[in-house]
Design goal:
By secondary structure, the protein is of the alpha/beta class. It is built from 34 helices and 13 strands. Helix 15 packs across helix 17, helix 28 runs antiparallel to helix 29 and helix 32 packs across helix 34.
């Protein structure tokens, strides 16, 4: 921009983003005059400060204009840290740019100047890889001999949101704290991010001081707005901001102009959020707990209400939009749940229900089951039969998808017994489905008759009833199955149930195949592929692709089946469908065996195992084990030797030392003791007490610490040995020894 003779360029961004560093790097390539405006407290001396910094003889604006005009050739003037003198500086620059030919001004500021000539360059945070390199290079100067764990380093940097000053300051803390101790913080507190180098200006020595200077620039109403918006984590839409702000549009615009908010487009809609460092600064220093709780409750109420709307949309005519909203707001939904879990359990249960279209249908299964169980616990504490039935229905549906039919029957039966209206009927539907899949057709039909009586004229329940009727018919005469599948499709279309309409080709394909119409079955499955591609729903898209590949196999078109699976894998991977990838990886192995490419199948086993281990779905584990036997591969043992004190473990002759990781070591020791005694899963509360015996914390903080410790153990090699269930964590396939 400067090379193109742009008259005024402003580098804009929040405190600590690296505006000064970038400006100095740019101006080092030209003969620039530089002035730091940070010490200016009186706008009346602005001209004198700029003149002295530029070593120009001037006592007035006119003198400064003449002095700059006498310089030979183009002149570049850098004015650094201008946010606190924006208005007087803007007036001064109008005169300078009008009066000095070939003058280019580069300004760094948290607030744009608002002049017509101004070109704003918004400076973004570092991407993760660059931030990791900055952390490592800073750490190498502070603790030259220390080796950094790349997993922990990356986790720390991601928590700092790529803010260069925060990354550097965190790395300097390695002089006093271990990498593990830094990583144990969900977010490193702002007050911890400082260094004692007195040669640097205060804003470069402490993140809290840097952010404090930004805070001083805000009008009182914007200060309050920051306090209110700090409850949003992961950003917000404008309509969500209205839950805590009376007039969000101009307020959000003003905070954006102060470089306190980021903005981006998600699914075609604008999204905003306080920079995480700003948000934590506000929460740690600028808002009292009572006020914060009120804002947090308003935040949770908004998302619970919107969640109910999107649940209806998911089951109706807008399933894709509903899933997109849940994906976009997943962090806020989870955060709202964490906050309301003890304060307002009824709100917490509603927030889990809002997440259910994602957590009930998609992976990772174990983590999602944990969320659904937590929602059930909150519904029970709220003593709300409808919420309890809703949570039980979601759990039953998730277990049906996972193939755990005994658990699905248990949860479905419990929900149906509550007689809590449509929610109980949905639980009964899941119970009937699990009973049918368990082979008890007569009992399943008896349960379905109860659904038929209870469904009445509720379109959603009638759709679920007809779906089960069509599925049950798949074991009867194929012509009846075809009729019921066609009727179901017509019903779904007439009632605007888009997702159900997309599901019916599966049933139609099954009936067509049983009638001997293989090409008709393929056509129905192609229809399913098109429908779920349009809905961007990875799980059923993967199932449709997989069933189509198997249909091609049965028709003898093995090469076509293989080609189909390769394109399908690329498609569902792009959508992030872990469950779908599991289905497809198994089908891929079957096709490779049919093609006689056994050695290639062996080489693909590792990919299939990695995917299926991640989603923890028992039927797929069984299918994978069968394929391993077919290709003649014995799965390596997952058993490990664990020291009873948690100081180390050995996996496949690789020893992992945990001596310096005190909290993680204590968590592993507690898990090992439970494994020896045959205890069931340990709750996060129990593990937190073991890992941090002398440290009290909020439920949210304790849960995050425990989750981080378990995650650390998994990344170090125990991913196959720590099982997660709704009740907690436990070690499996281990030998506990004194080592």
């Amino acid at each position: 921009m400067l090379r193109d003779r742009a008259p005024l360029v402003t580098i804009v961004g929040p405190a600590g983003i690296g505006k000064t560093r970038l400006a100095l790097e740019v101006t080092s390539q030209v003969d620039a005059l530089t002035c730091d405006l940070d010490p200016v407290s009186d706008p009346d001396v602005l001209v004198d400060v700029i003149a002295r910094a530029c070593r120009l003889q001037s006592t007035s604006l006119a003198d400064l204009v003449r002095a700059l005009g006498r310089r030979q050739g183009p002149t570049v003037l850098l004015l650094d840290n201008a946010e606190h003198v924006v208005d007087p500086l803007a007036e001064l620059l109008v005169s300078l740019l009008d009066g000095v030919e070939d003058l280019s001004v580069l300004v760094t500021s948290q607030i744009r100047l608002g002049l017509p000539e101004e070109i704003c360059f918004d400076l973004d945070p570092l991407d993760t890889d660059v931030a990791v390199r900055l952390f490592e290079s800073t750490a190498a100067r502070v603790v030259p001999k220390q080796t950094l764990d790349p997993v922990l380093t990356r986790a720390i940097v991601e928590g700092l949101e790529g803010l260069p000053l925060a990354v550097e300051l965190a790395a300097t803390r390695l002089r006093y704290r271990s990498l593990q101790e830094l990583a144990e913080h969900d977010r490193i507190p702002v007050k911890m991010l400082f260094r004692g180098d007195r040669s640097l200006p205060p804003r470069s020595r402490s993140l809290q001081l840097a952010l404090g200077s930004s805070w001083e620039l805000l009008a009182p109403h914007l200060e309050e707005a920051c306090q209110r918006l700090a409850v949003f984590e992961g950003g917000f839409r404008i309509e969500a901001a209205s839950a805590v702000l009376e007039d969000p549009e101009p307020t959000v615009a003003a905070l954006r102009d102060h470089s306190l908010l980021w903005s981006r487009v998600w699914s075609g809609r604008s999204r905003f959020g306080l920079y995480d460092s700003v948000r934590r600064f506000v929460l740690e220093t600028k808002v009292d707990s009572t006020t914060l709780e009120a804002f947090e409750t308003s935040h949770a109420q908004h998302y619970a209400e919107r969640g109910r709307h999107w649940l209806d949309a998911f089951n109706g005519a807008q399933p894709t939009e509903a899933r997109d909203w849940i994906a976009e707001e997943r962090v806020n939904l989870q955060k709202g749940f964490d906050r309301m879990c003890t304060r307002r359990p009824e709100l917490a249960a509603d927030l889990v229900a809002a997440m259910s279209p994602v957590v009930a249908y998609e992976g990772p299964v174990a983590r999602n089951l944990e969320i659904l169980h937590a929602g059930l616990d909150c519904a029970r504490r709220a003593q709300s039969p409808k919420r309890i039935a809703r949570a039980l229905a979601d759990l039953a549906r998730s277990h049906n998808i996972r193939g755990s039919f005994a658990a699905a029957r248990q949860f479905g039966e419990e929900g149906a017994r509550l007689e809590a209206g449509p929610e109980s009927v949905e639980a009964l539907v899941s119970q009937a489905h699990a009973t049918f899949r368990s082979g008890e057709t007569e009992e399943a039909n008896r349960l379905l008759e109860r659904v038929r009586i209870a469904a009445s004229d509720d379109p959603l329940l009638v759709g679920q009833l007809r779906t089960q009727e069509a599925m049950f018919a798949s074991v009867g005469p194929p012509d009846r199955a075809a009729r019921l599948a066609t009727r179901l499709r017509e019903f779904a279309e007439a009632n605007g149930q888009t997702r159900l309409f997309a599901l019916t080709p599966f049933l139609q394909a099954g009936a067509a195949e049983r009638l001997g119409d293989l090409r008709g079955a393929e056509a129905f499955l192609e229809d399913a592929v098109r429908s779920f591609r349009a809905l961007r729903e990875p799980m059923y898209l993967g199932v449709a692709h997989g069933q189509l590949a198997r249909a091609l196999l049965r028709d003898g078109r093995v090469k076509a089946a293989y080609d189909r699976l390769q394109s399908a894998l690329a498609e569902v991977e792009a959508l992030g469908g872990m469950l779908a990838q599991g289905f497809l990886r198994i089908a891929e192995l079957e096709v490779l065996v049919k093609l006689g490419r056994t050695s290639e199948a062996k080489s693909r086993l590792a990919l299939a195992r990695e995917c299926i281990d991640a989603i923890e779905m028992p039927p797929l584990h069984e299918q994978l084990a069968a394929m391993e036997r077919v290709v003649g591969v014995d799965r390596p043992s997952d058993e490990v030797r664990v020291d009873r004190d948690g100081r180390r473990f050995i996996r496949r002759d690789r020893e992992v030392d945990l001596v310096r990781r005190r909290a993680v070591r204590r968590v592993l020791a507690r898990l090992a003791a439970a494994s020896e005694r045959g205890e069931g899963p340990l709750s996060w509360q129990t593990l937190h007490e073991a890992g941090w015996p002398d440290l009290s914390a909020s439920d949210e903080g304790a849960r995050n610490r425990t989750y981080t410790a378990v995650w650390t153990l998994r990344t170090l090699g125990l991913e196959a040995n720590i099982e997660t269930s709704g009740d907690g964590y436990r070690l499996v396939h281990v030998h506990v020894l004194d080592m």
